[in-house]
Amino acid sequence: MNIKATYYIVVLIGLLGVSSCKKKANTAPAKKAAIEVSAVRVMQKDIKEYLTFNGVTAYQKKENIRANVTGYISGMRHKIGGKIRDGQVFAYVRTKEQDALRDAVKIDSSLAKFIGPITIKSNATGIISVLNVNRNDYVAEGDVIAVVVQPKSLVVQVNVPFEYKQNVQIGAPCELLLPDGKTMTATITEVLPTIDVQSQAQTFLVDLPEANLPENLNIQVKLLQKESTNAKSIPKTALQTNELLTKYWVMKVVDDSLAIKTMVEPLLKNDSLVQIQSERVQLNDWVITKGAYQMQDSTVVKIQK
Q1: How is residue 15 annotated by DSSP?
Q2: Which end of the chain is more exposed for a tag (fewer CB within 10 A), N or C?
Q3: Residues 31-53: pLDDT tens digits?
Q4: Is 255 strand, coil or helix?
Q5: Each residue's pLDDT tens digit, 117-138
Q6: Among 3.40.50.1220, 2.40.50.100, 2.60.40.790, 3.40.640.10, what is the CATH number of 62-149?
Q7: Which residues have CB under 8 Å from 195's CB, separation 6+?
Q8: CATH architecture for residues 35-48+228-303
Q9: What is 51-59+152-227's CATH topology?
């Protein structure tokens, strides 16, 4: 073999080696970028689980002011929303007979005592919530012309489905959530002995004698069902489940960079936290709260600061 042939063989071998190196370099897997997530540590908290029912405010004691004679309203001393006392004059009534006597008084002055206004008095102390007449309106004897409510008789009527009746007891404390976000503490005081035919719910009463609330106000009533102290807890946003709600898991972050799918058992819940039971999830472990939806097991992640 001459020197020229040997030279070509060496050059060819070199070219093949360079090509092989480039091919290996091109086929090397690229490192995956970390997914940014939000995470918190597993904490120890006291958790209370409540049953929540719908309630509405109502006055238990209402009194009707009725017309005691047939005639026309000649004067009224009170307006809707005003306060009135038992025995206080509410309105005046004049009758057709009194109008007829006015001309006769000119002839016989002794008849003047019969044309004086007839008074209608309140039979209760409270606030006028309904006013059915105005001045000069015609009323018949016995007509309801106003309604007086007693503020101290305000209650919340709580509709409890019959299957939850055993969870509600007389004397049990409850928490009332008002539409404006404020809360009040109260106590279940009474239960009515009837059940609504359509909803099959029984009505319990919560007394609110000192509350300054309007009637027919919708209120949520929360009753304590279970509680646990120093419970191993995570935010609700960290708990994931399948479509059938038969399996639950969290994405636990290990080594500050790897998300591992870890099965857990949820126990008590409140508005923001869930108590969990799992030997593989311990206090102070990191669990993902945002960014883990449909995340695969062993995904590389980066916790946002």
Answers
A1: H
A2: C
A3: 568 899 999 999 999 998 989 99
A4: coil
A5: 889 999 999 999 999 999 999 9
A6: 2.40.50.100
A7: 162, 201, 202
A8: Beta Barrel (2.40)
A9: Elongation Factor Tu (Ef-tu); domain 3 (2.40.30)
